[in-house]
Design brief:
Strand content: under 5%
Number of strands: 0
Helix content: over 70%
Radius of gyration: 24 Å
Shape: globular
Largest sheet: none
Distance between the termini: 36 Å
Order of helices and strands: HHHHHHHHHHHHHHHHHHHHHH
Length: 447
């Protein structure tokens, strides 16, 4: 009996071990790649489906033509995408071959590693905000939930890397603000400086991976600085400026490259106006007008090639600004639709049961997320602003351009934590009512 009890305790402790959860997450993702044959990709259109613009740029780099040609070979230098992931994919192409099955397996496996490692910050974010129980549930769901694997095992894109980096900077922000402890900092500025250096590095990597996520930087940065000043950190301003300098230093080489190549200041990506144009026009309906994209429309590609990227982008800027000025009401209506689609998912075929269920599940997860946030706010959880500002800031760019289910992926780890917290909070209140109805309200406030 004692031996059996000991074995059960050992098994339970293993399931509560974070390394076990991470290994399980990685194994599930790797199995999904091979069992589902997700490494197979279409050879049509010159294998454009392998990484899309990122794949084309990576192929150009790997074949010695530099960061160029996002649609077809020979169209010249580009700033269409942020550089980090295309260079990573180019390294894969160098080793395993351009548009080969081996390269596909390699990059999806790397994505799977990024996705599995995201379990680590998920666990510690949840633990700092809500305790170990929520942390374990959140980590296991992040590891085993099939939807959490989707973009990692199917798309040669930066989504999994960006998600990992954002979760890491979220966790670091919590730690630097002392959300796990009410005590004031010891005054050891060295440790605070080291964290601020890491903070600048992480945000720099995020900018070079997915600059859209920078919309959360002002919220998290100002809140963090304010939190440290309130806790008496002596060198908070100096450390924050050092962090900002490191962030700028990471971006500087790429910005200088863009200026030398295009003779204008392009900090990271240069296609914002094209993205805005894709979602806004007389025939726009709140979704991506894919038929106007240079990768889909031969006439648009011909204009892109003839004008060059910078002039082409400027032409789309003029068109979309003219539309917004002449049709402000319709633009506002489109923004509202896009905001709904961001949280509801893009509309599916009305006759498809699978599509309808996917929309319902997508919407349900959004509702649960905001339910968890409301409970946080009611209980005056110190991390409420971090979670709330993340949900507010990151989607803003997609409200004015166009939505896609992938665009929600970088904030879904934090959404998952809020959903788990909502269920555990409801269970805590239910148990409190059963044990002592008179104390249920107090338990709800203090749990």
């Amino acid at each position: 009996m004692a031996t059996e009890l000991g074995q059960k305790r050992t098994l339970a402790s293993r399931f509560q071990n974070l390394s076990t959860i991470v290994w399980a997450a990685w194994l599930c993702r790797e199995l999904a790649i091979f069992v589902g044959h997700t490494y197979r990709f279409s050879k049509l259109a010159g294998s454009f489906g392998f990484g899309w613009e990122g794949g084309r740029i990576a192929a150009s780099i790997a074949t010695g033509h530099g960061f160029s040609s996002p649609f077809r070979p020979g169209t010249g230098p580009t700033a269409w995408l942020a550089p980090l992931y295309p260079y990573l994919l180019a390294g894969i192409f160098k080793v395993f071959g351009v548009y080969t099955t081996a390269s596909s397996i390699a990059i999806l496996s790397i994505n799977s590693i990024f996705s599995a490692l995201t379990v680590i910050p998920v666990f510690y974010i949840a633990k700092r905000a809500f305790g170990r129980r929520v942390a374990l549930w959140s980590a296991w769901l992040a590891a085993l939930l099939p939807y959490a694997w989707y973009w990692a095992v199917r798309w040669a894109w930066e989504t999994s890397l960006a998600t990992l980096l954002l979760a890491c900077v979220f966790l670091l922000t919590m730690r630097m603000a002392g959300l796990d402890s009410p005590a004031s900092p010891s005054g050891d500025d060295y440790w605070h400086r080291r964290d601020w250096i890491l903070y600048g590095l992480l945000w720099g990597l995020i900018a070079l991976t997915n600059p859209s996520l920078l919309l959360w930087l002002p919220f998290s940065g100002i809140w963090l600085l304010h939190a440290q000043l309130r806790r008496g950190a002596r060198a908070a301003w100096a450390n924050a400026l050092l962090s900002a300098a490191i962030f700028v230093a990471l971006l500087a080489p790429w910005s200088v490259r863009n200026y030398r190549v295009f003779h204008r200041f392009i900090p990271i990506r240069g296609n914002l106006w094209v993205e805005l144009h894709m979602g806004n026009g007389e025939d726009a309906n709140g979704l991506w007008r894919f038929w106007l994209h240079p990768s889909q429309n031969p006439q648009e590609f011909a204009e892109y090639k003839q004008m060059g990227e910078v002039v082409y982008v400027q032409s789309k800027k003029r068109e979309v600004l003219q539309f917004i000025r002449s049709e402000p009401g319709k633009f506002a209506e489109l923004c509202l639709k896009r905001a709904i689609y961001y949280w509801y998912d893009v509309p599916r075929d009305a006759g498809s049961i699978t599509g309808s269920l996917r929309n319902i599940a997508f919407l349900f997860s959004s509702i649960l997320t905001f339910g968890g946030l409301i409970v946080m706010w009611r209980r005056r959880n110190r991390a409420t602003f971090l979670f709330g500002s993340l949900l507010l800031a990151v989607p803003l760019i997609y409200y004015v351009t166009f939505p896609h289910p992938r665009y929600r992926a970088p904030i879904e780890p934090e959404m998952l934590i809020l959903m788990v917290y909502l269920f555990t909070a409801a269970e805590t209140r239910k148990l409190a009512k059963r044990s002592n109805p008179a104390m249920a309200g107090t338990a709800y406030q203090q749990s």
